[in-house]
Amino acid sequence: MNNTSIYLSSYGIRPSVQRIAIMRFLLDNHNHPTVDDVYDALREQIPTLSKTTVYNTLKLFVDNGATLHISIDEKNARFDGSVEPHTHFRCKKCGCIIDIPMNIEDCLPKGLKFDIEEFHFYLKGLCENCKKR
Predict the structure, then answer these.
(1) Helix 51-63 vs helix 35-42: angle between axes, to the nearest 10 degrees?
(2) Is the pTM of this model over 0.85?
């Protein structure tokens, strides 16, 4: 059993060829891909792969906590293989999305009496490259 299979199993997801390839792509590509990005990258490697399979697999990953669905891009759903607490920055010019480490506890009001299961904090502006131009 490879590391990706073990990773999926740890989230209660039964590994398959398609699921392993999609998760491996997410873990290897930190550019927060869309369904189309994942499909385009894997369709030659897995000729039987459909866009519906990619969509349903990503939904399964999100529902089981193995992947994050991020809505920082108003036009496209994007997915993040990193489920560790962090925030995202999106450049308003080039559209790049960058992970930013963050201590979530520092952003929450003190004395909360409930469990936080999801936290979405997005930053938008100009990335370093676009700012220089």
Answers:
(1) 120
(2) no
